[in-house]
Every structure is written in C-alpha cells, then in structure tokens.
Amino acid sequence: MKLAVIAFAASFLLLGCSEQANVTTDNGKTYDWSSMHGKTVVVNYFAEWCAPCLRELPELNEFHHQKPDNVELIGVSFDPMSNEDLAALKEKHGIEFPLVLTQPAPAFPFERPNMLPATYVIRSDGSVDGPLMGEQTLGSLKNAVGAE
C-alpha cells in the first residue's frame, strides 16, 4: 500500500497537478503539490469529537513553533464544515498552526484516513509517509521530518 501511495504521489508530481490539487490554508498560503520547492509538509487530520486529537494539539502547536524552516504543518478537519465554523473551532481550541480551508475543497496526494488522529508527511520529492496513526508528540513529529 505504501509503495502505491508513493508511486501515485511521484506520478502526481511528474505529470503536474490541476488547480484542484492545491490546498489553501486560513492564513492564505496555497500548497501546490507539483512544486514543493524543497518543503516538507506535515498534514494532521483531526476532529473536535476525537479526544486523542484534542490531546495532541499542544504538541502540534509546539512543533509548529519549533519546526525547521523547510517544514510546514497544516491541520485538516476530518468533518466537513464551513470556513467560518473552522475559524471558530481554531479559536475555541487554541490551534496555532494553519488549517486547510474547506472551500475550495482540498485535494491531497493521498487518501483520506479512516481513523483519527492521522498524520501524513509529504516530502519535497513527492513521497508520502503515513498515515502516522495516533497521538503525535513533539519528538515523534521531529523524528518524522528528520529534525532530531
């Protein structure tokens, strides 16, 4: 399965992505998977009803502030919600890292996870690691991006 995801991501990057393959975050940044420019992107799926997701938020916030310059962290709501509801959820739970806007609909070079919390690492070469299942810590996130 992992090889299939890596092969898909590599072909995705080689063939180029359509405009639908981009994601935009609430801070206005757009990620184009066809041109990562040396960046690694950590994508964390969460939901407000997921207790482990809420427990890992402080670790994700800390990682966001300590991550290397070539690493980005973005959060994705597992549940569909309006951009306004997403902003309210971010404020309510003190999320300090960017969240992916739901409109326009995001597209990633991997399938949506079946369980939460789930974290993916998209490398600058288009390879995808993950999902890393369960609560992540500052240490596990640094390890996943090779920062330890």
UniProtKB/TrEMBL annotation:
CDD domains: TlpA_like_family. Keywords: Cytochrome c-type biogenesis, Disulfide bond, Redox-active center, Signal. The keyword Signal applies. Coiled coil: none annotated. It comes from the Bacteria. The keyword Disulfide bond applies. Residues 1-21 form the signal peptide. Pfam families: AhpC-TSA. Residues 12-148 form the Thioredoxin domain. It is found in: Cell envelope. Transmembrane segments: none annotated. This is Thioredoxin. It comes from Idiomarina piscisalsi. The lineage of its organism: Bacteria, Pseudomonadati, Pseudomonadota, Gammaproteobacteria, Alteromonadales.
